[in-house]
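Researcher: I'd like a structural prediction for the single chain below. Treat it as a standalone chain; there are no partners to consider.
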Amino acid sequence: MAQLSLMHNSATDNRTSSQVVPLPRWTWHAWRRVLVLTAIGFLLGRANIEHVVSPFGLAYFAVLSEVAGRKRAWPAYLAIAGSYTVGGTLAAITMLVELLLYRVARRYVFRKKSPDLHFIPITAGIVSLVAKLAMIGTVWTKYDVLIALAQAALVTILSLIFIQCMSLFIGQEHTRTLKYEQIISVVILVASVVMGFSGLEIKGVALSGVAVDWIVLVMTCAGIGVGAAGAIVVSMLTLLNHQASLSQVAILGFAALLGGLLRDTNRFFVSVSFVLSTTVLTATYAYNVHTLLVGLLTAGIASVLYFMTPKRLENELRTYVPGTREHTQSERERVQRVNALLTEKIHEVSQVFDELSKSFSDTGETEYAAAQQLVTQIVSATSQHVCALCPRKAKCWDKESMQTYHAMANTLRNIESAGGRRANASPEMKERCIRLDPLMSTLRYNLDITNRDAKWMKKLREQRTLLSAQLSGVASAVRGMAIEMDEDHKSSLSDEEQIIAALEQLGLYVDDVHIVSLEPGKVEIEVTQPTEGAYENSARMIAPLLSGILGEHISVAQVQQQHEGGPCTSVFASARLFQVNTAVATVARDGRIVSGDTHTSVDLGNGRYAVAVSDGMGNGERANRESKAAIDLLKKLMKAGFDEKLAIRTVNSTLLLRSRDEMFTTLDMALIDLFNAKADFLKVGSAPSYIKRGNEVIEITGDNVPIGILQDIEVQSIEHQLRAGDILVLMSDGLYDAPPHNYDSETWLRSVIAKLETTNPQDIADTLIETAVRMNHGAIRDDMTVVVAVVEHREQEWAAIKLPSVPSLRKPMKRRGA
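Model: Treating it as a single chain, here is the predicted structure.
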């Protein structure tokens, strides 16, 4: 019973975890949303235009049903009660018919659970038209048809508007950044709710007027644009049922404009400015003191309610409006949370690779234990085949098993030591065994099979060790990326604000600044601008300013624009002090089309530039396929962040596993640091490389076997400091060994390179190939490839801008390797 209960609980847990939408937790925060949705439904049910058209309730019900789900849309049914308070039983029945008819249409028209939301407003409009005409009766006048069409059109439009903002009210917003269209949609929804206060008064003061004034005061926290636009939209909609006049629309717009200017002060000044502006402007058109007093009283009550409004509500509203300090802070916090979660997940992935690496490396098996196991396996197989029917089996294996085992093991040692010669059994074996000839032949046969298995097991252990190293390399690369992300995200908010303040001193206003990294040589800063001419501003003002603040040259790495006319994000990064210009010349053996050599010149993206030449065994397509596979895999591993030596060992193991045939390739690679011009030469079975510095020629050599021959290879790394103007020459064996036998390869090549007068890399590469071909009287005996790289200073695009009032974000630091 206990086990059955446990299985039941486990099944229940699985069903719960597989659900897409979790069960709602009815906390106080959730109940507040329910109360707000209920109040909106009730007031939208009351809202109408001249007591003739009531499109708000159905539009709200249709949108809430699709966005929140049918089971969570029950607050919208309060629209029935709202319509009853305004139009009596007939209005309530009409609203009930509309809602039920929509549910029927939704169920049978759209079979899918999640249809396209653009069809929902059309469906709601058609339902409104049918319900309105059905409630009128069988005799329709032109006026009735026009009213029904007008209401259907309004239902469709309002549904489209409510779709834009309904996710905010149910807590399903996907982003904290709202477009201005969405902000206006929220304002229209709020104004529609305010229309539900029509006809409600306390002591002669209309609740709709108090609600409008309070909403305008709250919207001033979002700034001039949102406050003024929202005030005009709200007052214009209340104008439809004569709750306001055109003059009041202008007064509220000006009051919201003035309150938006004072949003960074405090509520007292905002309230005073609102009351004074509305009172003074109302006095200019009011024909009696009563109207003026009612307006003053309405503004005063709204101000009191504004003071009672939690400050948290204003801060929450500002987080949705782009350009406000709260929105910027909210976006930064969201990015930091996402980055922290991402860093944690990356750490977990690195730990998984670490565990996999340990599982492949820690097998608990030594070479002695493996050899002992193989001996035991041979003895066991031989005894089952030879001793099974022997009359002395009981004596040998039951009573004297250890002595028999050692005697057979010694015999095996004699057989293995004899090699191909005939071996004798051990003295102990001769004394014990009466079937010595079949025993010896069986031992030899089993030893041959076991030796073959042992070779494969050794190869498997080697591959397992290599796989462990590769997994460890992946874990190291992933862990390094996580650590780098974690360190980059620790940049302080004050540094970002300092950059924003410095830009404002130059008269350039930006939306946001995000510091990714301030490490010397690895600076990365993202600046979001609202204008279309982002690149010009970035190149002319922002990049020079950052160069002055950081003490190193900064360049524009990337400019991103999501859509035309929208905000642009510019990425600024450390400018490299050096650049590499490369050229290549290659010819195939006997003038063929396909060469067995492969070359590459690639920017690895981390401040390093790689130049490599690979020479495959032989010539033609097969050699080209092997060398190209080595170069392509090496390039991808290094761009992914692998250590160069581990990457080369990985390529070596890949070539070993590609084919049973003997396939190998040489590799000659130079990694150049573009910040300090330091180069690492990695040579695996390759020809020498040369550095031409003025009239001096420096030779870089290495002694090891090519890739793909041995399991464990030695990767030689030779470090050399380059200078601006240095010329690197990397070549395949075909060019190095091109001269006839009466020439010295090293002497002729150094002599040709030393006599070069040009610094153009392509001319140098062509000259070396042509010289090699002429020395053989036009014959091409092997594939020849030469890659020439010229190291040059990178010219600065602009001078740094240093503002006296802006201190440096960090002290000047020495670059890597300095």
